[in-house]
Specification:
317 residues, mainly beta, 8-stranded antiparallel beta sheet, 7-stranded antiparallel beta sheet, 3 helices, globular
Amino acid sequence: AKHTDGTGTINVTNGSTAVSGTGTSWTAAMTGRKFRVTSDNEWYTFTRTAATTGTLDRNYEGTTSTTADYVIFQDIFRTHGDVNQLKLFRNLGQQRTFVYASNSEFDRAVPTITQESEPRIGVVRGRDTSTYSTGTVSGTAGAKVITGAASPAWTSVEGLTRGIKIRVENQTYTINTIDSDTQITIYENLATTISAGTAYTINLNNILVQFWPPPADSIGVPYKYIRIMPPLVNDWDESQVPEKYHRLIIEGGLKRAFMYQFDSAKYQLAKAEFNEGLLLMKADFRQTIDKVNVLGSSDRIRRQDAFLLPLNLGTLS
């Protein structure tokens, strides 16, 4: 939901990035959200430094004021970490789906954001480049559990879900579950023991979606997506590709192996068997009305014939 603090007002100065509040109660969660003086068109990215102080990502362009009204809002959200292709966003409150727009179409139609209301349009803005490294970690070699210390607060990090990568020392692991604020379970076994107090980095490589208008109130937005398959790292791991198509994984691996070995005859044979299996798998799903959404060259989400892989549900809230 947008944040206005009711009777709270702010002090802004033309040409300065500093913002101070009177009667405000800004929280750390507001860092990274957008900030706008109510009477202005321009918006800024807000960083909270205290309950009554913050900074903007660039100098304030409006008129200096000590009693300005303002709004802090969020319109860009991280999807789940294992999202590969988005299919559909729904607004249950208004009983309709979101209209998709390309980046260029949206930016031409909405050059600035001057209202918060009920979202109607979704725009895929690419992938996030943020990192998270609050606290420290430890773990035992061969185990799948990473333990946090010094308040990492992992459950409160938006978009920190299955599929996100965590780097510790010289190793990168794939997150399976966020068990608590201080425990993460990974798919791979820890290569080495991680000593207490070790630094880490989580790469939040989530797909970003912008909603317009930005939500004035807190709402849940269910969505469907084609997920990224988890890694096959142990002898006992099972692929989430349907069992009848497991042979395709072997043929695909053989095709690549023979290519690297410069064995043309075996490469062509494996390639033919792989392509034949792929055509059969596509044919099994071609008649379904539930087609896969993909990003086209103009970054517009469109529908096309494609085979269907495991489907997950998520909620942005």
